Amino acid sequence: MADEAKPAVVGGDDDGAKRQREEEEKKKKKSPLLHVLIIGAASAGLTIAQGLKKAGIPFSIFERDPDDESRYRDWGMTVHWSAAYLTRCLPQAILDRLPETQSDQQLDFDTITGFPVHNLETGEVLKEIPLTTPRRVSRKRWRKVMMEGLDIQFSKNLVDIEYPPDGSVIAHFEDGTSAKGTTLVGADGSKSATRHLLLGDKAALTTLPYVMVNTVVRYSPEHTKQITDAIHPFCHMGYHPEGTMFWISVMDNPDPADPSQKTFQVVSTWEGALSAEESASSPARLAALRTRISRYHPPFSHFAAWIPDDTPVHPDRIAVWDPLPVDHHAGRVCLAGDAAHNMTFHRGQGLNVALQDAADLVEAMVRVRDADDGGAGLAEAVRGFGELVLERGARECGVSMLTTRLVHRWGEFMRSPIMSGAGVSALGKGDEKK
Ligand SMILES: Cc1cc2nc3c(=O)[nH]c(=O)nc-3n(C[C@H](O)[C@H](O)[C@H](O)COP(=O)(O)OP(=O)(O)OC[C@H]3O[C@@H](n4cnc5c(N)ncnc54)[C@H](O)[C@@H]3O)c2cc1C
């Protein structure tokens, strides 16, 4: 079996700490049959790991990348309705550190109640989108904070899963090592190896016909100041009648006295495909963005024109995976987060749903442990969890896909419930798949 999770660190020898230690010892004694193997150390996997650790359930967590930084791209993500699931999974020490994960460390997100959506042709505000206690986080800093206190095994690329006759599960890694446990959770993102091992060709992503630019920009200090003065503190975004979405928001703002340290996330999408030259070259992709945005209403046109020439623009694509049922091998394997439901980002739901998955999985494992029946309920608990993930994933993938289609078709978008005031939940059933 892979190394046991260490018990949660407790403080000094006061009564509270002693009680906590006793509680954790008791929980450990009740969990001898559970050992969860988590594949992927990012939003979903780390939240599951923290939740299991808090509950005293043994686990091991494996990450393909060699360390916590080198290959990890940054972008902003908005945590909104899922905050309650975080509270369920995270220890107080990490909840206290959440302000460190903010994309704009200087912003009091409690003051944010929504953000304006603009017409990129005229500059007018089309609508205010209300938001309840949103927190925009940097994916990189979020991950770093969530790693606190976890023993993550890096350079572990999952390549195979084995289901031995003794009812356990074995994860095999590219480096020839393996780890044995009771349940393997594939939290390995949109291209999930776990999903491919479970479903073969049916696990493949579908690429949608949109161009996507998603980059982090360090503007000149002078432009940084002008942009800061011009934009809404949460984000400045809008849609153009010819079918473009454009978004700019603060990505990092560590020192208010030093604008050279401030960066912005710039995201834009439009229907179509990159040319061969644009697919091959970052400067060509930047030129494509500039050309597209140059004729838009200022200040949006400036936000693209002012991007420094050496800014890397990655060859991103918008790809989705609509959830399908998987064989859970009697409770020995399941999926969570983007691995289970890879949706388009225009509705900002992927992380929020991943956090709900994490909290539900931890609860399922706690129920198995507390049943005290030698793990007999594991298969049923994982099946129930899988059903929840499938149902919510299918619904969210559908509505997100519909939102993506609508925001690139101006006429339909203006008539849609999103803009008419009824909200996304009023989108007609069945519309999602159109
Ligand atoms: C531009 C953009 C904006 C977004 N904005 C929002 C937003 O505002 N709100 C929101 O809720 N969501 C948003 N999302 C979606 C959100 O980023 C994802 O849903 C979320 O990050 C998924 O987390 P995850 O842990 O499931 O997957 P990932 O973050 O992809 O993590 C998967 C992990 O598994 C590891 N891994 C992969 N393969 C293997 C393997 N074979 N073996 C071991 N480890 C492996 C990877 O290295 C990685 O660390 C946005 C996405 C984009 C692209």
From TrEMBL:
Keyword Cell wall biogenesis/degradation tagged: no
Region annotated Disordered, chain positions: 1-28
Transmembrane segments: 33-52
NADP keyword on record: no
Domain FAD-binding: 35-368
Signal peptide: none
PANTHER family xref list: FAD-BINDING DOMAIN-CONTAINING PROTEIN (PTHR47178:SF2), MONOOXYGENASE, FAD-BINDING (PTHR47178)
Protein's UniProt name: FAD-binding domain-containing protein
Organism: Glutinoglossum americanum
